[in-house]
């Protein structure tokens, strides 16, 4: 499956949002969406998941439009347990109990499955958020700042999950402020700044084109933050 984003613009007040974004997403590819606070990453993600509509431009899907999504923050009912929440969502998304338990194990919440979410730490809530996004169908997997609140062990586990999804032929698109993570696991990068795509392409092509040795240098150079 391929997703094409053609000249997509979404303007909020003061012209912020996303301006004339164009790129193509391919199967079996991990794409990192990077950019400063307010650059437009979440806006672009909301456009991709059809939570908002573009003012102009279009997003064209070559195949069915099913996707899975991990928002940057997801409030769960505090009085329910992790198992109950996955069970409810599993019924909606037709995911077997066995698969629900496998996912709980993958995100390290199997032992805590009978604890109420109200007793969860921030990292545990984020892992439950990851778990809900791993359920269901769809060949586009979108994650908005998935490392938020995760400790180094769980960031390492998240990397494994994303690489595994890629091996299964998924398109994995995630936003992040961790440029080293983008460099480590992403095939390509979309660098947003003030709603504009400043650069897009494979990591190696960006490094070569900008004559830089790492993504941080590319980011500082293109966003003109060198020397700050
Ligand atoms: N619903 C909205 N109404 C008005 N302005 C908005 C809305 N959503 C986003 N914006 C503005 O659009 C711009 C891009 O915001 P967005 O949340 O997409 O950035 P981001 O790159 O995800 O930022 P961060 O790294 O801080 O999460 C910002 O200037 C923001 O204030």
TrEMBL record:
SUPFAM superfamilies: P-loop containing nucleoside triphosphate hydrolases (SSF52540)
Record keyword Phosphoprotein present: no
Keywords, alphabetical: ATP-binding, Nucleotide-binding, Transport
Record domain ABC transporter: where: 3-219
Matching Pfam families: ABC_tran
Source domain of life: Bacteria
Cross-referenced InterPro entries: AAA+_ATPase, ABC_transporter-like_ATP-bd, ABC_transporter-like_CS, ABC_Transporter_VariousFunc, P-loop_NTPase
SMART domains named among the record's database cross-references: AAA (SM00382)
GO molecular function: ATP binding; ATP hydrolysis activity
Gene3D superfamilies per UniProt: P-loop containing nucleotide triphosphate hydrolases
UniProt entry tagged with the keyword Iron: no
PANTHER family: ABC TRANSPORTER ATP-BINDING PROTEIN ALBC-RELATED
Listed name of the protein: ABC transporter ATP-binding protein
Organism, as annotated: Domibacillus mangrovi
């Amino acid at each position: 499956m391929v997703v094409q984003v053609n000249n997509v613009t979404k303007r909020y007040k003061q012209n912020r949002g996303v301006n004339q974004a164009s790129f193509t997403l391919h199967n079996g590819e991990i794409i990192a969406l990077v950019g400063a606070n307010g650059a437009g990453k979440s806006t672009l993600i909301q456009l991709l998941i059809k939570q908002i509509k573009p003012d102009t431009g279009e997003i064209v899907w070559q195949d069915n439009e099913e996707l899975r999504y991990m928002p940057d923050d997801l409030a769960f009912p505090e009085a329910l347990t992790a198992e109950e929440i996955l069970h409810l969502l599993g019924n909606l998304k037709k995911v077997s109990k066995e698969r629900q338990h496998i996912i709980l194990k993958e995100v390290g919440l199997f032992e805590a499955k009978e604890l109420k979410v109200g007793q969860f730490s921030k990292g545990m809530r984020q892992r439950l958020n990851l778990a809900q996004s791993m359920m269901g169908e769809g060949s586009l997997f979108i994650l908005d700042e998935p490392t938020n609140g995760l400790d180094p062990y769980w960031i390492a586990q998240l990397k494994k999950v994303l690489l595994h999804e890629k091996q299964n032929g998924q398109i994995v698109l995630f936003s992040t402020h961790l440029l080293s993570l983008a460099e480590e696991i992403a095939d390509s990068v979309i660098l947003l700044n003030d709603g504009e795509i400043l650069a897009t392409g494979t990591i190696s092509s960006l490094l070569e084109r900008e004559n830089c040795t790492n993504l941080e240098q590319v980011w500082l150079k293109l966003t003109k933050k060198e020397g700050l």
